[in-house]
Amino acid sequence: MTTNQGVKVSEDEHSLKAGSRGPTLMEDFHFREKMTHFDHERIPERVVHARGFGAHGFFQPYESMAEYTRAGFLQDPNVKTPVFVRFSTVAGSKGSADSVRDARGFAVKFYTEEGNYDLVGNNIPVFFIQDAIKFPDLVHSFKPEPHNEMPQASTAHDTFWDFAANNQESAHMIMWTMSDRAVPRSYRMMEGFGVHTFRFVNEQGRARFVKFHWKPVLGVHSLVFEEALTLAGKDPDFHRRDLWEAIERGDYPEYELGVQMIDEEEEFNFDFDILDPTKIWPEEVVPVKKIGKMTLNRNQDNVFAETEQVAFHPGNVVPGIDFSNDPLLQGRLFSYTDTQLIRLGGPNFHELPINRPVCPFHNNQYDGYNRMTINKGQVAYHKNSLQNNDPRPATEEEGGYVHYQEKVEGRKIRARSDSFKDHFSQAKLFWNSMTEPEKMHMIGAFQFELGKVKSKDVRQQVVNMFSHVDTYLAEQIAKGVGVTMPENAEESKVTASSPALSQENTAKWPQTRKVAILAADGVRAEEVMEVMKAFKSEGVLADVVSTHQGMLKSETNEHVEAHQTFLTADSVHYDAVFVPGGQGSIDQLKTEREAIDFLRQAHKHFKPIGFVNEGAELAQSAGLNDLELEPRKVCEQEGVVCITNAEELTTFNKAFIQAIGQHRFWNRKV
Ligand code: HDE
């Protein structure tokens, strides 16, 4: 151990004192240095997206995209580009819970050979507002209210909904934030979207409009809201833990990069404005072309140095990727550097290890707080003769970034295009695309969020607003929050739907799902072992949860290890529950309230449940049978897999693992 000056430290337990019971001495430079550094350990948290977590990985294209873009990292399927991803919530402070209802940030930094490219997206493809000048207002409305700083990490309060009702361009995004998308099961099971329209520009200078998508290989899956609320208390780190552990295990999260492209000539061929960030390009109208895959395969070494100090900026682009005139994007191009200046204390944050490009970089920018580069030489200006005009700009052929020469003309005016004025058609498209259970979740979300709003007038305004989207939805919200439907309410006439918007149409896999095995002394060991073996071969994870940790004694005196207890684990930590047989085990579990609650909750949250032999008796004690007296009635319910004869365990394993892959059984009556 040394001081920051490199002097070896001989003692780090006691400050220097005048006598062992005397006062501390000013000359204790080691104490002063240690304490001063500690006093300055915090930097301002991000004004939005404060709570986040990152991981390293790489991106590899499937094929050359030369026809569409000259971006170097999209040319050669053999080239792997390193990436750093930071996932985040938006509204909460740095110490808030992971599982709250919110949009999630999905920001990717590609360290390309041509410089850093940042795709700073969200898990929702649209945004609340259409013009960046309204961003401070939006954020002030959803952050805790200024007079009492409540509530934390939640839009369930008056000011947010007051903003929504008085800025109705937010309608579409609110539909998404009230949907299951806002309570993801895992960062590994979320889509990502660039949101804005960007441009791809190829070698010949031809441009196309482009939107970016990340599609998780594991599919898109969510928590139920009650689970998210419980997790906020039981495990505020739920999402970061899930990501960290998956990478540690070698279950590397993968996301395919997709692009939607529109030719410049087709810009006006749609019934929405393609520059409007409150609109999607429905995938059924403009297909998503999958062009590559990102794999996250390395956890960060130090969260502060990486997650906290990483500085994203939508303006970090490389040749071949350019901007559009989306007024939200244009404003973001200013905001990100500006915020880093205050957050990271000066203009040299690009020199921090996590932000440094992997290619060489040089220019005439000098000095400033925390300058790390030691620039050499006499000259710091362009053009010069003293240094042979070095560094000099690169030509386009040499890879110099040349902005796309879009022709622009117009009067200076503070206004929004009329083509941005339809706020309800795509909100309705989203509603039409949901399955019944998804719609029910949304109604519940609206009733919860708006139910927390104290102003009846604001609640009424919101119902009036959503009556322009869908009558049934608005009626249900009105009913839940004690206001009335407006007279002459007129819902959107849109009847189309976009199946790609429903999570029910997503990929479904059992891999990396977590199962709780409920057991106690007397459990039938071979059932546990055999099922666990089958889980392992399918990449399903399992913990034995019991009344105590350590070894359980099985029916036949073998040992089964309990990894968790009913105190350390909760059903919300798991995707499924398995109850093996063994009369002794079941008889004991029947008397344990926590075991009963565990099972009841998993059932209520629509999770797959497996019972083997006597295991099903626990369902009876948990009341899963709708007060039916027949214990095996539960086995007829959706997503409940049972077996009576231990001989048939292979059949059980197959059916149960398939059910685990289904994620949830929304049509189960609970
Ligand atoms: Fe951001 N946003 N944003 N944003 N944003 C920030 O930059 C801003 C918007 C997004 O993990 C800030 O470094 C404005 C849309 C992510 O570090 C700030 C507007 C989308 C992250 C900022 C938007 C995003 C941020 C705060 C409206 C989805 C976290 C701290 C014009 C496409 C990045 C920071 C990370 C962070 C400004 C709207 C995504 C203040 C002005 C739309 C993922 O600069």
Automatic annotation (TrEMBL):
Cofactor annotation: heme
InterPro entries, sorted: Catalase, Catalase_AS, Catalase_clade2, Catalase_clade2_helical, Catalase_core, Catalase_haem_BS, Catalase_immune_responsive, Catalase_large_C
Positions that bind heme: R46, R86, F135, R332, Y336, R343
A GO MF term: catalase activity
Source taxon at top rank: Bacteria
Domain Catalase core: 2-390
Location of the active site: H49, N122
GO cellular component: cytosol
Entry EC no(s): 1.11.1.6
A matching Pfam family: Catalase_C
Region ranges (Disordered): 1-21
Cross-link 3'-histidyl-3-tyrosine (His-Tyr) residue location(s): H313-Y336
SUPFAM superfamilies from the UniProt entry: Class I glutamine amidotransferase-like, Heme-dependent catalase-like
Reaction equation(s) it catalyzes: 2 H2O2 = O2 + 2 H2O
Cited CDD domains: catalase_clade_2 (cd08155), GATase1_catalase (cd03132)
Keywords from the named record: Heme, Hydrogen peroxide, Iron, Metal-binding, Oxidoreductase, Peroxidase
Homology family: Belongs to the catalase family. HPII subfamily.
Protein name: Catalase
Organism of this sequence: Bacillus mesophilum
Lineage: Bacteria, Bacillati, Bacillota, Bacilli, Bacillales
